[in-house]
Design brief:
With 429 residues, this protein is α+β, with helices and mostly antiparallel strands. The chain is built from eleven helices and 19 strands. Helices cover 21% and strands 30% of the residues. A 13-stranded mixed β-sheet has the order 1-8-9-10-11-12-2-3-4-5-6-7-13. Strands 14-15-19-18-17-16 form a six-stranded antiparallel β-sheet, with helices on both faces. The longest helix has 13 residues.
Length: 429
């Protein structure tokens, strides 16, 4: 059993449509927390985290040595099955969800879009439980498939080719090197036009590196016990915020004792209860996957969307900024820097992005006639009215990311508690 050994780390989405569907799309523009939580979940999305069993007896290891083991791991070949469960505490969208689900009236499967577009489909991982089949053979070959009872969605990267295929709708998405970038699998989302959603790691190692990179003086990192994950012995690395006010209580990463590959990722809320995210391998094999795993030819009759067309569709008004004015520029404070009409408050786990909406307008209300009744019902179920030195506003809650939208048109958002948001708004007044 490894000891509790501490270490500090440093450094660290068309207009003109009429009818019910258009009403639902308009309504969804005001669902602030859904968009915010979707981004947060996408950042965690494909990273494996497993249910563990057993408690193997392994040599003692320090947190620093375990971090070094992760960094030194050169394992680039693997295949297996991943189960991922996400519980952000978001109420059911009911009729609204129909417009934005893949293939829905306002979603990727609607006119001009594709139900195979990765930018749309990967957000499925923001809620519920999903089974994934994954494979990787170096930085230029990866495959991720989301499995349903009667269908499968696959995203395949092979050299300069990126394909995505939705068997349910028989639609495919294709991008070449110019769109995907030579390092699509290695640097997902970092290059313009990359079809892989920004911030979504493509290997388990990428997640652990992302978490550890974000860790700094405000973080406690310890080696705390052992576990058995997918039949392999593993050490447990526990990452916790030192600061108060964060919605995250801890992140537990199970690291393969032999090759240093992260096998398990579990994010627990500071309020207690079930995990916010619990995803991981139920089976894993570190031998070279069969080459056929990374080849794809669209079945006869498949509707294929090219990346350039999909990119134009996103520009038509399906970005995050279309849901939260100013959020595209903010990127929720990525990198800890202010951008455009966004100001970053605090640091580390307590970082809050202050976004000033164009025109300084707050949340439209049913009384003003700007919000359909179904949207108002959703907002009322999700939000808490608050007041303070800043005036008044509404806090929209999830179990991970919370957002305070003031009546004078400012948004405060972060993985922090309601009290922390109110305090930030008061300080900024």
């Amino acid at each position: 059993m490894a000891p509790n050994d501490s270490a500090e780390t440093n450094g660290g989405t068309n207009g003109g449509t009429r009818g019910p569907a258009a009403g639902r799309r308009k309504a969804a523009r005001y669902i602030v927390p859904v968009a915010v939580a979707g981004v947060a979940a996408a950042t965690i999305g494909l990273v494996p985290a497993l249910a563990s069993s057993g408690d193997p007896d392994l040599p003692k290891i320090s947190a620093q040595k375990l971090i070094e083991k992760i960094a030194a791991s050169d394992t680039e070949q693997l295949s297996g099955t991943v189960k991922i469960s996400t519980d952000l505490g978001i109420p059911s969208l009911g009729g609204l969800a129909e417009s934005f689900a893949p293939g829905g009236a306002g979603g990727a499967g609607g006119k001009g879009g594709s139900s195979a577009d990765p930018q749309e489909r990967m957000t499925e991982l923001a809620s519920g439980t999903h089974t994934l089949r994954v494979a990787a053979d170096g930085p230029d070959k990866q495959r991720v498939s989301i499995l349903d009872d009667t269908s499968e969605y696959s995203l395949i990267h092979n050299g300069d080719q990126v394909w995505a295929y939705d068997s349910k709708s028989d639609q495919a998405y294709h991008a070449t090197e110019d769109m995907a970038g030579k390092d699509a699998g290695r640097d997902a989302g970092k290059k313009p036009g990359n079809p892989v959603p920004e911030g979504v790691p493509t290997t388990p190692k990428a997640l652990a590196e992302q978490v550890l990179k974000a860790a700094g003086p405000t973080t406690s990192v310890t080696a705390d016990g052992t576990a058995q994950v997918a039949g392999r012995d593993a050490y447990k690395l526990v990452v916790k915020p030192k600061q108060s006010g964060s919605t995250i209580g801890s992140v537990v990463v199970a690291v393969d004792a032999e090759n240093g590959v992260p096998l398990k990722f579990t994010m627990l809320p500071s309020s207690g209860g079930k995990a916010i995210v619990d995803a991981g391998f139920t089976k894993v094999d570190f031998s070279k996957p069969d080459a056929s795993s990374f080849t794809f030819t669209p079945p006869k009759g498949t509707e294929v969307t090219e990346a350039d067309d999909a990119k134009a569709e996103h520009k038509a008004g399906k970005g995050l900024g279309d849901l939260i004015p100013g959020a595209d520029a903010a990127q929720l404070g990525a990198g800890g820097k202010s951008a455009g009409n966004t100001k970053i408050i605090g640091e580390g786990w307590s970082t809050i992005a202050e976004i000033t909406t164009p025109g300084g307008t707050g949340i439209p209300s049913k009384a003003s006639g700007d919000v359909p009744a179904e949207a108002q019902q959703f907002l009322d179920a999700l939000g808490d009215k608050v007041t303070g030195k800043f005036g008044s506003g509404t806090v929209f809650k999830t179990r991970l990311v919370n957002a305070l939208m003031t009546d004078d048109g400012k948004v405060y958002v972060g993985a922090v508690t309601k009290d922390a948001l109110v305090k930030a708004a008061n300080s900024a007044s």
